[in-house]
Each structure stands twice: as C-alpha cells, then as structure tokens.
Amino acid sequence: MILDLFLDASHGPSEHGKNQSPEDGARSLTFRELAAATRNFREDNLIGEGGFGRVYKGQLETGELVAVKQLNQDGLQGNREFIVEVLMLSLLHHSNLVTLVGYCTSGDQRLLVYEYMPMGSLEDHLFDLEPGREPLSWSTRIKIAVGAARGLEYLHCKSRLFLKDQKKYRQLADPLLEGCYPRRCLNYAIAITAMCLNEQANFRPLIGDILAALEYLAAQCHVSESNTGPAREVVETVSCQA
Hints:
Distance between the termini: 19 Å
Strand order of the largest sheet: 1-5-6-4-3-2
Number of helices: 7
CATH class: Alpha Beta
Membrane topology: Lipid-anchor
Radius of gyration: 18 Å
Largest sheet: 6 strands, mixed
Helix content: 25-40%
Number of domains: 1
CATH superfamily: Phosphorylase Kinase, domain 1
Structural class: alpha+beta
Protein name: Protein kinase domain-containing protein
GO molecular function, one term: ATP binding
Strand content: 15-25%
CATH topology: Phosphorylase Kinase, domain 1
C-alpha cells in the first residue's frame, strides 16, 4: 500500500498541505486547543519521541490533521531559541518543506504544530523494515533525493535563509514523496520584523518576542562556506540502504 502511494505520486512537485499563502504565518493556538486535538496527549496518539520532547498526532477543530511537537520543559532549547524557531519556520513556504501550522506558549508549555505527514520519516522506510515489507524501489529513492534537494535549494537560494542544522534522517516522506523537514534556520532580521505587518493579530508575534529573536540572531547569524553536505548525505543514504 505504501509503495502504491509512492508510485502514484510521480507526477511532479507536490502542493499537498500548502494552502497557506506566503503572507500567512504560524497562528497562535491555546494549550486547551492542542490538548483537545491530541485527546489530552494520549499515548496512542504518540508518533515520535526524542531528546527535544514528544510528537503527537492531532486533529484541530477545523478537521486539519497535525503533528504537535511538545518540547521538554527542562530541555536545552531556551525561550529565545523557541521564538526564533517559530519566526523562522513561519517564513518558509515551499512545496518541499513541511508547513508550520501554529505554536503555543502557554505558561511553561512550548509546542510547535506542523502539518501531518502520514508516511512518517525517511528513516522509517530505510531501516529495520518489518518482515515481508519491500524496500523502497530505486525510482522512489531518486524522487526522495530530488525532493530533499529541492527543499535545500529553496533554503539556500530563494528563501534568504542560512541552513544551520539539517540532519539527513529528518526527511519526512509525505504521500507525494517530496517532504523535507527544515530544522532551525537563521534569517535576515528584516524578514522577521516584516511579520509584524500581518493584518490578523493572532499571526503577529509580540514585540518582546521580536526583540528577543533579533538579539539572538545578532549573536548567532553566520554564513556557511558550504552547505551541500546535507543533500549529499541524503543521496548517499538512500543509495546505500538497499
């Protein structure tokens, strides 16, 4: 079934889940909304877990399926880093990048809400396959590599973003094979301030958040000499794991 879905999706770039216009950003959601979406973060809704926290499948009141990333309260990521991640990901709009739908900063809770990728991650389809499960075909592997390359090209050449951390297994395989999950990126400060011009109040960050993000960017922003490594690693991985 999974291979059938992969092979049916061989007709060019995907627009799946990309109904947001470039002017849209991530919307502010309440903790109550996300608790309802995930059925109070039930264990059977858990789809991922790591050092950063846990990820749950959820459904918003609009019917939209989402992945809710609940960050560890004692994690290494501070409040400013969280704000930067929200602002940066809100600026990314491309068919090969997973969309940040919303976020929550309720009390000591920090949550990110992404569009849901029902096919899981690239790692799920390359390693520790269940008995009887067919490995990915070469045509599928090529499409995955092309999708990752398109997402990286957008980040490097068209989005004015500096790619800081892109792990090869952080690729998400959506039904159209071309999902790429961008990790923390740094942008020009002017792009952040432009978000304040959104006509809808709940899409505008607080001025305190903006100032904190700009302060963080001033200390962290850098230009990488070469960012071709992530794309090369993805190609090597999908080629070798036959």
